[in-house]
Amino acid sequence: MTDKPRLYTSPSAFPNPQRVRLFLHEKGIADQFDEVIYDMAPGGEQRGWQHLKMNPWGETPTLRLADGGILSETTAIVRYLDQAFPGRRIMGETPMEQGLDAMWDTRIWVHILYRITTMFHVLHRGLGPKLELTHNPAWGEHCRKEALAHAGLVDRHLSDGRAWMLGGDAPTFSDITLATAVAFSKFPVCATPLDERFEHLDAFWRRWQERPAFRAAYADRSSGVAELDDRK
Ligand SMILES: N[C@@H](CCC(=O)N[C@@H](CS)C(=O)NCC(=O)O)C(=O)O
């Protein structure tokens, strides 16, 4: 291990750490960090005392800077990195772009990605007591409905021919959250793939797959999504 900042993270199957990883590759700074990848077993290293001292929530992603400073919560980490490192501002250049990116990111995180992860948790039967005790198909179905309804709104937003959420020529952070939501929706237990039924969202997903940053971020082939893990 070097004295680079450390990102405590998880395989690409885990959506929030993956949002940070994709951000690092889009920003072009991934090689400036050491990744510490936990296996994320229920009650695994993320729930051990060493990690809890850094992040009492017992979660990844968590960033430990070279000076010992600690940040967790995905949006907080990427906001810091976007400001602290040179290069393209992934969260928007102008105040208006930053506002719009935050607006879309919040909508996508709250109404789509968080819904899908909740659905995954309450429909799954094998996560165990430290990760999820509740089995609640009715709540899972509610979350599925919400995620699909909001994916429909995002699909309509993309239907004017724009490549990315803000209409620019490169993705911003809300695009990263949306790509991660699409990836996570493809887990079998979710059974709600945001797929070709959403024409513009599906084109967006295929656009991401052409990007070197996206390919690098999913290079571990541990996403659990066949079209990412089995691609040539
Ligand atoms: N609000 C946090 C959520 C982070 C989170 O949910 N992390 C999950 C992986 S996606 C985790 O560490 N789960 C392991 C556990 O709870 O033991 C963020 O935005 O970073």
Order of helices and strands: EHEHEEHHHHHHH
**General shape:** globular
Distance between the termini: 31 Å
Low-confidence regions: none
CA radius of gyration is 17 Å
The CATH first-level class of the largest domain comes to Mainly Alpha
Question: What small molecules does the structure contain?
Answer: glutathione
Oligomeric organization of the protein chains: single chain
**What is the mean pLDDT?**
94
User: How many separate domains?
Assistant: 2
SS elements, strand count: 4
Strand content: 5-15%
- The computed structural class is alpha+beta
Helical fraction = 40-55%
| Tally of individual helices | 9
- Strand line-up across the major sheet: 2-1-3-4
CATH fold category name of the largest domain: Glutathione S-transferase Yfyf (Class Pi), Chain A, domain 2
- Largest sheet properties: 4 strands, mixed
What does this structure look like?
- The chain is α+β, with helices and mostly antiparallel strands.
- The protein folds into two domains: 6-84, 3-Layer(aba) Sandwich (Glutaredoxin); 95-211, Glutathione S-transferase Yfyf (Class Pi), Chain A, domain 2, CATH 1.20.1050.
- It has helices at residues 15-27, 49-54, 74-84, 95-123, 137-158, 173-185, 199-209, 212-217, 226-229, and strands spanning 6-9, 34-37, 62-64, 70-72.
- It has a four-stranded mixed sheet, covered by helices on one side.
- Strand 1, helix 1 (15-27) and strand 2 form a beta-alpha-beta unit.
- The longest helix has 29 residues, at 95-123.
- The chain is globular.
- The model has no long low-confidence stretch (mean pLDDT 94).
- Bound molecules: glutathione.
- Residues 10, 14-17, 40, 46-47, 58-61, 73-74, 131 line the site of glutathione.
